[in-house]
Amino acid sequence: MKEDNRRLFFCGDIHGDFREFVWTATQKYKITNSDINILGDFGIGFDGSLPGEYKHVEKRLKENNICIWVLRGNHDDPSFFTDEEKFSYPLLRFMEDHKVYKICDKEIYIIGGANSTDVVWRLEANQKLAAGGKDRKVWWEDEDVVKKYN
Prior knowledge:
Blueprint: E1 7-11, H1 18-28, E2 34-39, H2 50-63, E3 66-71, E4 92-95, E5 100-103, E6 106-109, H3 119-131
Parallel strand pairs: 1-2, 2-3, 3-4
Antiparallel strand pairs: 5-6
């Protein structure tokens, strides 16, 4: 993304409403020439719908010169944030923990995750999904903030 006159926005917890989020940013608020950082709980990893969702909004992101950057939240599948090659979209980027990104001439150090207040319900849901033969989760063991010491 070209840095000239770009604006930097931060947003939290869209919980899987990616299409609605992009529509709101571009149509309701008329955001253009911007980098938007979603601060966790993007809602990734629950149902595998991201490729279709991305294709649906990619044109609108291009037209408005917007790039979406996503920090891992406690309701996001951590694997999306460690395999840039597998989960790489031109205008949607999943940021890896403990890495510095330069966005709009600012250096941003990423530490994702958080504790879930709903962990008991989510663990029970994982057990039900596994018992039903589903290869999905709604809670991940390493969703808490990961500390890194040098």
